Amino acid sequence: MTGLVQGVRHATVARTVAELAALLGSEGGTLALSAVDERTGAVDLSFRLDDADCGDNCALPPDQLRQVVETRLRSALPGLTAVRIDDSRRPVPAGDGVAGDGRVAPAGPGPSSITVLDPTGGVVPGDADPGPDLGSLRGRRIGVRVDVLWQAWDQTVDEWIAELERAGAIVTTWRRAQGLKGAEGERRQAEYDAFVGGVDAVISGLANCGSCTSWSVKDGLNALNRGLPTVVAATEHFVGLARTLAADNGRPGLRLVELPSSLNTLPEQQVRAHARSSFPALLDAIGAVVR
């Protein structure tokens, strides 16, 4: 076959989708392969929240999910022409998309089908620069972005703040209520922008589900793109997703510090002990020194 329609192999699609499902993590919904047209290069997927521990609040938002799926499949499947994601969170009219050759794509599995177009260009590698090292902590203003979801992250941050202040840093925190829209969302975003503008470095977290990983990375990139030393805290199951989101947004070098996925199930005493023991890893990740 020639041109855009080169076809795809079912085994390659299945393997790539399995990798994507593992990347997203079972806590934030289930991505599954529904059908593959090997001749035309069209792929149908489904995304379900039935098994998600915390529902829609923990799932990767539809636009982010689509971006991650599109980027990964484009990279692995050069013969791809269309991807339809049956995502019940976001209904759109069936057959709303256009295939890569300009024709109207066939209707997907139902009214919630999203068609992802296959562009002909490759994936842009982005800026691998992790940003500047922080250097000495003494006198530096450190902003810690927390969230409304993970109590263990608050406990971890408490311990890190004590260590940072002991080293001479000045620490402030800001709490993200993710997913707010409209005027309230704009107000909170302006508040965060002002917060980032008043510090010398940012620690953002916690990336411990699909949605909170998306927001933690987004808020971290806000600081990194301003030239600030920045690190995002992610639990081990979501490190891969955090790296993928950073790369998809043009900054694959975003610094990460890894925490255990069991963090939010541990007793507070163990969480705080782990926070103290992981403090050197935080310093290393953001390029900071105590002197």
UniProtKB/TrEMBL annotation:
Pfam families named in the record: UGSC
Region of interest called Disordered, as start-end residue ranges on this chain: 87-135
Domain of life, source organism: Bacteria
UGSC-like domain mapped to chain residues: 115-286
Lineage per the UniProt record: Bacteria, Bacillati, Actinomycetota, Actinomycetes, Frankiales
Matching InterPro entries: UGSC-like_dom (IPR057767)
Coiled coil: none
Biased composition (Low complexity): 91-111, 118-133
Protein name: UGSC-like domain-containing protein
